[in-house]
UniProtKB/TrEMBL annotation:
Keywords: DNA recombination, DNA-binding, Transposition
Keyword DNA-binding included in the entry's annotation: yes
Keyword Transcription regulation tagged: no
InterPro entries: RNaseH-like_sf (IPR012337), Transpos_IS4 (IPR047952), Transposase_11 (IPR002559)
Name of the protein this chain belongs to: Transposase IS4-like domain-containing protein
Record-level Gene Ontology MF annotations: DNA binding; transposase activity
Transposase IS4-like domain ranges (all copies): 57-315
Family (UniProt): Belongs to the transposase 11 family.
Length: 396
């Protein structure tokens, strides 16, 4: 809807398009940023009905990022990697933005939501913004965030981590007198005995030698071939050959954690790690439903106001979804689809906005959401595969 017409229709406020555009300035950006900050800091408690595995932890903190290209005119603030221009791939555009997002899987509380330029990678973000570490927190993050200083910081705070093993990290095993691990030998043993998994007590890092559990699981041929194909293409570009050690290593998944085995047994390690995929699904919802990555050329302050307002809208609906999902699961043991819920929220966005001024109307909307959820938002089980929500419920 045209903003000028909307303001006149809903608020009887007459204003020109130019006057509206003038109001998108640094102060307006700060205003939206502070609303978002206030939303993030507001206490939000989802019912913690976890009597199983995850109840061992204070918080289960999942973090990931999503990037998308911006108009070339935004390069001075949001720098990219190349010269692809607006609409190019994320690794080849002049202007690029990254959205860093972290939330607690147990409470649903958003712990971090920031905008950075595309040149700031996840590793540097992990170094600069891993804070508020509390005893018995569990941190689950993608490989891009994982470094030895990060792992040491988590362990030093009395918390726990679960990560994939970074490719170039040196690992020492007790079985070999704490000599560097021979990955070719390891793969040969697992292949010979047809092992579905293996666990070793190891020291990670050439200098740090951080005590960890290393859980090893073989991958299917399709995953192996994809890894080798990617490494071979990279090798051709940088003029090197893929080593036999890398080929052996590519046949396996490696997970490292400092959680005691009695609290997280070997078979559950991969299941818990896949909880991280919740954020990948959420980012897809953000892009498909809120269109956060579809940016037209405009003044940068207007873009930032729009993006912050979309993130505010997404987080408010996320809270409604978490509340609704818990209520429906407690009542009927039915899991709800975040994708289906956001599609519905997008359809009734105008009604939701108007209901913010009328608590009675908001209550009616929430009652209706609960009523239709078991029919319209039910999470359909994929054939022979658990969804991330089902995995979470199974573990809990």
């Amino acid at each position: 809807m045209d903003v000028c017409s909307d303001l006149m229709e809903e608020y009887e406020l007459g204003i020109t398009k130019q006057a509206i555009d003038d109001r998108f300035n640094d102060r307006a950006v700060l205003f939206f940023r502070r609303i978002l900050d206030r939303l993030l800091s507001a206490e939000f408690n989802t019912c913690k009905d976890f009597g199983g595995l995850l109840s061992r932890f204070n918080r289960v903190r999942i973090k990931d990022s999503t990037k998308f290209p911006l108009p070339k005119a935004f390069t001075h603030k949001y720098k990219g990697h190349g010269g692809g221009g607006n609409g190019g791939k994320s690794d080849n555009c002049e202007s690029l933005i990254s959205v860093q997002y972290e939330y607690d899987m147990l409470s649903g509380e958003t712990m971090d939501l920031r905008l950075t330029d595309g040149l700031k990678n996840d590793l540097s973000d992990s170094r600069d913004f891993t804070d508020d570490i509390r005893e018995n927190d569990l941190f689950i993050r993608d490989l891009g965030y994982c470094s030895l200083p990060y792992l040491e910081k988590i362990a030093g705070g009395g918390a726990f981590f679960l990560n994939r093993l970074p490719a170039k990290t040196v690992v020492y095993t007790a079985e070999d007198g704490y000599e560097p691990m021979d990955f070719k030998k390891l793969y040969a043993i697992m292949n010979k005995h047809k092992l579905s998994h293996m666990e070793l007590d190891v020291l990670v890092g050439k200098k740090a030698k951080l005590p960890c559990r290393l859980v090893i699981m073989p991958v299917d041929n399709a995953t192996y071939e994809k890894r080798i194909r990617k490494a071979t293409e990279k090798g051709k570009h940088y003029k090197y050959k893929v080593s036999q050690e890398y080929r052996a290593k590519s046949r396996l998944n490696f997970f490292i954690t400092n959680v005691d085995k009695k609290d997280l047994d070997t078979e559950k390690v991969r299941e818990v790690y896949t909880l991280r995929w919740q954020l990948e699904l959420l980012f897809k919802v953000w892009k498909s439903q809120a269109k956060i990555d579809q940016i037209k050329e405009m003044k940068i302050e207007r873009f930032e106001c729009q993006l912050y307002s979309k993130l505010i809208w997404l987080l408010l609906n996320w809270r409604i979804f978490k509340w609704m999902g818990n209520e429906i699961y407690k009542r009927e043991r039915i899991l709800c689809s975040v994708w289906k819920f956001y599609k519905y929220a997008t359809r009734i966005a105008q009604r939701l906005r108007m209901a913010l001024k009328d608590p009675v109307q908001m209550e009616k909307i929430l009652i209706r959401v609960l009523k239709i959820a078991p029919m319209e938002f039910i999470l359909e089980k994929k054939k022979d595969k658990l969804s991330q929500n089902q995995t979470f419920t199974h573990l809990a």
